[in-house]
From TrEMBL:
<protein>
    <submittedName>
        <fullName>Uncharacterized protein</fullName>
    </submittedName>
</protein>
Length: 113
């Protein structure tokens, strides 16, 4: 009888070169924070690398002030790359194009069992 393999630890993922992406949405009328997390290993890594490469990390727009608006934080940990971690904070109005694609991909991956 075969037992299912346990989930890899964070250290094992890092050692294997797993790419991790975390999306956090904060703000809004209730000020509730939501978080989604995705891990890409082996076969999935090229797709995620390409998706993240399209994001203008260096040119991420500044947050704009405004009541009841969402702010999105996107953080990607990419072992073996330079830089190994990238992060952007975006106002809701800037969540378009490749940024929106990343958020949707992370949300979709987080919903899978």
């Amino acid at each position: 009888m075969n037992d299912p393999s346990p989930e890899p630890t964070d250290a094992e993922r890092a050692e294997a070169g797993a790419l991790e992406v975390e999306v956090t949405r904060s703000g809004g009328m209730a000020g509730i924070r939501r978080r989604w997390h995705a891990v890409a290993v082996a076969d999935d890594r090229p797709r995620w690398d390409a998706l993240l490469a399209r994001c203008p990390w260096e040119d991420a727009p500044e947050e704009t002030a405004g009541a009841d608006r969402f702010v999105w934080r996107i953080r990607a940990s990419c072992p073996g790359e330079t830089p190994p971690e990238r992060m952007a904070r975006l106002p809701e109005s800037a969540l378009v194009g490749p940024w929106l694609e990343v958020v949707r991909a992370v949300q979709s991956a987080a919903e899978r069992p």
